[in-house]
């Protein structure tokens, strides 16, 4: 009997070890995406199965290096001790402001941006731009300026630049270009005349998984991408533009790309405008519970009807805990989203 019990225990241990090894192999073969809580700015870390890292934006410069510390903490969680690429979508302080503090905390290989700052009349934008230029002038970092139609030189995922410096793709991406019915009912707006219009937009492809991040690209520039033909096609994950502000997130864009999941990097008091929130929540593959929207914060200015359920919010009102959201993407188009606050994991099947 003792021998039988010992054999059963050993068998269970062996099975557990095999399952753990299988889980580890699956994780290593996945694309990992970390949505840092930078309180209404942006900082999104991509780590490919080949170990190359891309950080999109760096959060704010203030708060004693809070955002840089949160980014470095996510890097440690991801096993990243050097950020290979830092891409600055545009030069507003909630996107470029954290660059000097981040560079003081972790090695960086290359910076990527759209070129010159075009918003010279805004003091905060100028301050962030000059601090960034001072860092580049050291000569210790590679520097790449991109334009629409470029493909980022990354290993392990394909990244198309779809907008930059006020321009968008001239031609549809492969398989896209179909007429976009949402153009007929989506309002027409003028450009903002700020750096937001000039945001770098990215379409990340990992096998069959497609993730769209347009930074703070504005409603007017979205239309150039989506009307009359949809130059992008449908996506699986949409990083909600401009923190969920109504200056962005037109029906022409959101209904056209029809994400299955949307992730909003809003702050407690910034972003998640009710009108933009509704456009995303009512988009074709999210409405009716077919997909889901996630938020980094409860939008405390909104009522409960304009916030997602608490299980899909990383940070609730109260203590500034800095919880993140994490996405684990697989090449078959399936993915999982983890809420760091609760530890809950939600799986999304391949379409």
Topology:
Blueprint: H1 2-28, E1 31-35, E2 44-47, E3 53-56, H2 66-77, E4 83-87, H3 93-96, H4 99-103, E5 108-113, H5 123-136, E6 142-145, E7 158-164, E8 167-168, E9 201-206, E10 209-213, H6 219-226, E11 237-239, H7 251-257, E12 261-264, H8 274-281, E13 292-297, E14 313-315, E15 325-329, E16 335-339, E17 345-348
Parallel strand pairs: 3-4, 4-5, 5-6, 10-11, 11-12, 12-13, 13-14
Antiparallel strand pairs: 1-2, 1-15, 2-3, 7-8, 7-9, 9-10, 15-16, 16-17
State the fourth-level CATH superfamily. Ribonuclease Z/Hydroxyacylglutathione hydrolase-like
What percentage of the residues does DSSP assign to strands (E)? 15-25%
Record field, number of beta strands: 17
CATH class, anyone? Alpha Beta
Please describe what this structure looks like:
- This protein has a single domain, classed as 4-Layer Sandwich (Metallo-beta-lactamase, Chain A).
- The longest helix is centred in the first third of the chain and has 27 residues.
- Helix 5 links the parallel strand 5 and strand 6.
- 49% of the residues are buried.
- 24% of the residues lie in helices and 22% in strands.
- With 351 residues, the chain is an alpha/beta fold.
- The strands form two sheets. Strands 6-5-4-3-2-1-15-16-17 form a nine-stranded mixed sheet, covered by helices on one side. An eight-stranded mixed sheet has the order 8-7-9-10-11-12-13-14.
């Amino acid at each position: 009997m003792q021998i039988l019990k010992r054999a059963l225990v050993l068998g269970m241990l062996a099975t557990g070890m095999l399952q753990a090894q299988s889980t580890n192999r699956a994780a290593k073969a996945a694309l990992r995406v970390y949505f840092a809580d930078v309180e209404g700015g942006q900082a999104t870390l991509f780590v490919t199965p080949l170990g190359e890292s891309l950080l999109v934006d760096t959060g704010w410069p203030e708060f004693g290096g809070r955002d840089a510390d949160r980014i470095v903490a996510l890097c440690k969680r991801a096993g990243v001790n050097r950020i290979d690429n830092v891409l600055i979508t545009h030069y507003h302080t909630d996107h470029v402001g954290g660059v000097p503090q981040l560079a003081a905390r972790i090695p960086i290989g290359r910076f990527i941006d759209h070129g010159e700052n075009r918003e010279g009349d805004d003091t905060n934008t100028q301050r962030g731009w000059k601090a960034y230029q001072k860092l580049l002038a050291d000569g210790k970092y590679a520097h790449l300026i991109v334009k629409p139609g470029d493909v980022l030189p990354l290993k392990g995922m394909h990244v198309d630049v779809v907008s930059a410096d006020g321009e968008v793709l001239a031609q549809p991406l492969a398989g896209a270009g179909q007429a976009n019915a949402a153009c007929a009912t989506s309002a027409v707006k003028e450009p903002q005349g700020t750096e937001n219009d000039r945001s770098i937009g990215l379409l990340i492809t990992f096998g069959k998984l497609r993730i769209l991040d347009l930074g703070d690209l504005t409603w007017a520039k979205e239309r150039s991408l989506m009307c009359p033909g949809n130059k992008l096609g449908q996506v699986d994950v949409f990083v909600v533009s401009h923190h969920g502000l109504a200056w962005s997130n037109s029906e022409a864009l959101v209904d056209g790309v029809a994400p299955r999941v949307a992730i909003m990097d809003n702050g407690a008091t910034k972003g998640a405008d009710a009108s933009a929130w509704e456009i995303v929540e009512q988009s074709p593959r999210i409405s009716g519970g077919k997909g889901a929207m996630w938020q980094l914060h409860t939008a405390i200015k909104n009522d409960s009807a304009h916030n997602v359920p608490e299980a899909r919010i990383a940070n609730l009102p109260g203590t500034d805990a800095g919880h993140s959201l994490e996405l684990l993407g697989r090449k078959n188009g399936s993915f999982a989203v983890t809420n760091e606050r609760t530890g809950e994991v939600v799986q999304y099947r391949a379409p």
